[in-house]
Design a protein that fits this description.
It contains ten helices and no strands. The protein is an all-alpha fold. α3 runs antiparallel to α4 and α8 crosses α10. The chain starts with a helix and ends in a 12-residue tail after the last helix.
């Protein structure tokens, strides 16, 4: 099966998933304590990979994930009815991840060539997709890997990634296309069947 097709199938969040998160967000706003568990279960993987796309270390991503949810719970009482808790959570997670990167090396710009010295390189998530992600990380530049993980693993649209990274959609779609080409050419054939799992 062609890599591009497999990745696109996984990368597009099903409409039912979006609707489930939207509904869970509404319920969470009405009853934060009672509805937290279902909101958490629907969003944790996507938010984790958003964080992981920045810090690229499992333990650190998990710590930041926990902090993002704590921040959400602390601030949910101040939300207006129209504020989306999932958007707040993603924004908070991104900011916490960037703060962590800045702690590692002061004055680093996330677009700098040297950012790969600050971002972790050898700590994949602890699950069956870890070895595949490690291979993907080797083939892509840090920015390509970030765009790839946000699109595929966090199920973000290019418009959402554009807002998150403050980059034009055209740049992101081009970067994503380049990343897919690199993966198509560079990934070992043994990983092709595993692409369904990420």
């Amino acid at each position: 099966m062609e890599v591009h097709y497999v990745i696109e199938m996984r990368g597009s969040m099903l409409e039912s998933e979006k609707n489930a998160i939207k509904e869970a967000s509404k319920l969470f706003l009405k009853d934060p304590e009672g509805q937290f568990a279902s909101f958490y279960e629907l969003t944790k993987e996507k938010v984790y990979f958003l964080i992981y796309s920045y810090v690229r270390e499992n333990a650190e991503a998990e710590d930041i994930l926990q902090n993002a949810y704590v921040s959400l719970l602390k601030n949910v009482s101040t939300f207006k009815v129209h504020l989306n808790p999932y958007s707040y959570l993603c924004s908070s997670a991104k900011n916490l991840a960037i703060d962590e990167l800045r702690k590692r090396k002061k004055n680093v710009e996330l677009d700098d060539e040297g950012v790969s010295d600050v971002i972790g390189n050898d700590d994949p998530p602890i699950d069956e997709s870890g070895p595949l992600l490690l291979e993907i990380k080797k083939l892509l530049s840090p920015f390509e890997f970030q765009v790839f993980t946000l699109r595929i693993l966090s199920d973000m649209s290019f418009k959402e990634i554009s807002k998150s990274l403050n980059r034009p959609v055209g740049t992101l779609t081009y970067t994503y296309s380049v990343a897919l080409d690199k993966l198509k050419k560079g990934l070992d054939k043994k990983w092709m069947t595993n692409l369904n799992q990420i």
